[in-house]
Every structure is written in C-alpha cells, then in structure tokens.
C-alpha cells in the first residue's frame, strides 16, 4: 500500500484541508493518507480550538486514514524543529511521499532555495546576526538575509515571507538533512491566505479566519459553508458537551496565575524565554485583566506575537529549557485514530516501523510521552468554567478512534 503523509493542525478541519487531503491522494496516487497532527497546543503558541480527539475524528471522517500525534516538544516549536519532528514521524511510518500546501505551488523553487542556503550557510547566518543586531525580529532578519543571498542569482526561488512556504521549506530541509527516502510534493494553496478573514462569497476560508469569526460572532452555523458537514457536526457536539472553545482568552486566568506565582528566575527557566523578557512578562501579567491587554504590553519589534505565545505556552505547561534539550527527536508513534484502511496498513507495516507504535499510553514509559500527557491535562483544566468540569487523565482513558 502506497502511503502519503501530511502535517496538520486542523484547527478546525475546513474545506481547504479537505482539498489538501483529496489532492495529496490524487497527486501521489496514494492508497493511504497519514496525518501527523499537533496535540492540544499548536505551533503558533496557542491552545487548540478543540482537543486532539475531536480534531482526529474530523480528519478521519474527511479522508485521512491514520492520525499520529506530533509530540508537544515539536508541535509547539519553531518551524525548523516542528518540521524535523513531523518528517521524522512520517519517515518512521514508511510513507513514500509527504505533501504540503504552499503559496508557491511547485517543488523546484523549494529545492533551489535549499541548495543555495546550504552552500552559503555561513554568509546567511552572518547576515541574520547583522539584521538582528539592528533590532529586527528573527523572522524579519531571516527574510532580509535570504533576499541578500538570492538577489543576484538568475533563478526562481521560493518566497520565504509566506507562512506555508516557510513551513514547506523546513519540511524539505528536514527530509534532506536526515537523508530520508520520503519524497516531497506540494500543492497550491487556493482562495484564502493564511491570515485572511472569512469571505462569505467563497467556500474556502483560512482556519485563522474561521476561529476569528467564531469568537467574534459566536455562531457555528454561520461557518457551515467553510467546512465539511462532518466537521461542523463535531464542533456542534463539542459546544454542547464542553460549551467553551480553546483560546488564550479562555485560559488567561490560569496563565496569569501561573506567571504571577512564579519568580523571575522561574520564568527565565521556561523554554524560549530569553534576553530578560521574563521581567516584562511578569509586570504585564500583574497589570493586565485580559490576554489582549497583556499581549499589547509585551509585543515588540524584536518579539513576534507567535514567539511570545510560544513562551506563554511553555510557562503554562511548565516546559523548561533543560527538558527541551533532553528531547532532540521523536521516540514513538502515538496513534490517535485510524480507519479500517489505516488498520490494514498498520497490520502490514508494524514490524518494519523504525519507532515503537503506541496505542495504549498506560503500557508505555517514555519521558517525551509524559510531557504530552501533562500538556493534555493542563489543556482540559484551561477549559473548565463554572458550568463545565472537564476531566483530566483523558490520555489514559481514551483509546485510538477507529472508524
């Protein structure tokens, strides 16, 4: 059976994701689509709208055959580490190809950019440092340095100012660095860009736009045209049973408590907290009644919104620098769900998989997995309100979903 991998968050699963799954299967002639999906905290440093089980069911009902969890350490990391973790898992799952959506739409500019940046790595890194010394944020310094390296070369290179292109580049970089046999494929992102608001004249919207519309308007029914019915049904079911959706606004009281309770030294020990920003985080938390107020106080030219949110994610979950350094690569394959077709694939491949397959958490001892379990419990606590008491320990009680 030929397998193609995709790297996803599905926050939530919408028509653009449906198109991605369908085109990935078609373009690679795949029998099986395997999704590596972030857990309950995401790469942009925020809680997922709904938990990983709800999002797994959305994916399985819309064409994915197997969902593997991307461990917290990689799911909440900067783009290069996020990509390295995801490609490692897809390679371990014996995928023949991985397919990512991009603004570029063709693979050749990605491989050219990789070749140039690899052969001119020293000049590239020096240029990045120079731009950061001028006060630019890391992403902006990357873009300026990249422009300097490629400006005099008479070839087409990928635009690394676009969010999906950036991730796509890092997927290819990860695959080439590990000399993986898995082959990169890309498809054109269509209609909506990453940060676009919803457009009622279209049937595809970005996940960012969908979440924004949901929080501003409070109506799931208004989003019906942007997602498969199976996804809408899952969201309606979630709203009935949990009543609130994951966001930093919802989690703010607990996050604020965690920050103010911590010493400055404690805050500095959490992953991604650097250069004394812990002082600003502490003072802003004391003065801010809402998450929005807090972010306005902390945001600066040097630190992007996303990078600050990743710091906050690690503060909230208690994830420290020393723990990050102890886990350079994934050590297991955690199955969140599968179809019958996916079960058949696993039965054929399980003896050849290069990482152990985890379906029962209680039977597995792994420090990387323990981080995931704690993050899941803290996610559930963040959803609690006066109306809802969400249970912790779901990772121990919830078996893989089988459709």
Automatic annotation (TrEMBL):
Protein's cellular compartments: Cytoplasm
Record's keyword annotation contains ATP-binding: yes
Catalyzed reactions per annotation: cytidine(34) in elongator tRNA(Met) + acetate + ATP = N(4)-acetylcytidine(34) in elongator tRNA(Met) + AMP + diphosphate
Superkingdom field: Bacteria
Record has tRNA processing as a keyword: yes
Record-linked SUPFAM superfamilies: Nucleotidylyl transferase
Binding site for ATP: 7-20, 101, 164, 189-190
Any one GO biological process: tRNA modification
EC primary class: ligase
Record keywords: ATP-binding, Cytoplasm, Ligase, Nucleotide-binding, RNA-binding, tRNA processing, tRNA-binding
Coiled-coil regions listed: none
InterPro entries in alphabetical order: Rossmann-like_a/b/a_fold (IPR014729), tRNA(Met)_cyd_acetate_ligase (IPR008513)
UniProt GO molecular function: ATP binding; ligase activity, forming carbon-nitrogen bonds; tRNA binding
GO cellular component, one term: cytoplasm
EC number per UniProt: 6.3.4.-
Task performed by this protein: Catalyzes the formation of N(4)-acetylcytidine (ac(4)C) at the wobble position of elongator tRNA(Met), using acetate and ATP as substrates. First activates an acetate ion to form acetyladenylate (Ac-AMP) and then transfers the acetyl group to tRNA to form ac(4)C34.
Family that this chain belongs to: Belongs to the TmcAL family.
HAMAP family the UniProt entry points to: TmcAL
Record's protein name: tRNA(Met) cytidine acetate ligase
Originating species: Paenisporosarcina quisquiliarum
């Amino acid at each position: 059976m030929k397998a193609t991998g995709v790297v996803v968050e599905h926050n939530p699963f919408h028509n653009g994701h449906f198109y991605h799954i369908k085109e990935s299967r078609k373009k690679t002639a795949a029998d099986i689509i395997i999704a590596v999906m972030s857990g309950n905290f995401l790469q942009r440093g925020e809680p997922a709208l709904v938990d990983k089980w709800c999002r797994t069911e959305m994916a399985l009902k819309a064409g994915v055959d197997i969902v593997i969890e991307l461990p917290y350490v990689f799911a909440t990391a900067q783009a290069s580490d996020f990509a390295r973790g995801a490609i490692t898992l897809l390679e371990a799952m014996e995928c023949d190809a991985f397919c990512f959506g991009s603004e570029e739409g063709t693979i050749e500019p990605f491989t050219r950019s990789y070749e140039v940046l690899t052969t001119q790595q020293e000049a590239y890194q020096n240029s990045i440092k120079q731009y950061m010394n001028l006060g630019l944020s890391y992403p902006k310094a990357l873009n300026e340095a990249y422009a300097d390296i490629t400006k005099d070369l008479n070839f087409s290179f990928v635009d690394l100012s676009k969010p999906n292109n950036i991730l796509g580049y890092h997927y290819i970089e990860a695959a080439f660095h590990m000399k993986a046999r898995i082959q990169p494929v890309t498809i054109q992102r269509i209609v909506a860009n990453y940060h676009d608001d919803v457009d009622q004249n279209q049937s595809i919207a970005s996940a960012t736009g969908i979440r924004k519309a949901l929080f501003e308007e409070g109506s799931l029914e208004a989003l019906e045209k942007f997602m498969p019915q199976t996804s809408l049904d899952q969201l309606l079911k979630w709203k009935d049973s949990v009543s609130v959706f994951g966001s930093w606004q919802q989690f703010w009281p607990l996050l604020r408590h965690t920050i103010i309770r911590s010493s400055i030294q404690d805050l500095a020990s959490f992953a991604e907290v650097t250069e004394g920003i812990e002082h600003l985080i502490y003072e802003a938390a004391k003065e801010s009644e809402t998450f929005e107020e807090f972010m306005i106080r902390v945001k600066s030219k040097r630190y992007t919104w996303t990078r600050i949110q990743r710091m906050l994610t690690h503060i909230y979950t208690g994830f420290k620098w020393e723990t990050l350094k102890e886990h350079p690569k994934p050590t297991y394959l955690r199955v969140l769900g599968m179809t019958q077709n996916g079960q058949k694939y696993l039965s054929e491949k399980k003896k050849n998989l290069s990482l152990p397959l985890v379906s029962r958490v209680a039977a597995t001892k792994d420090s990387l997995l323990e981080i995931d379990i704690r993050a899941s419990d803290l996610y559930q606590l963040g959803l609690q309100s006066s109306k809802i008491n969400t249970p912790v320990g779901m990772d121990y009680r919830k078996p893989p979903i089988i459709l």
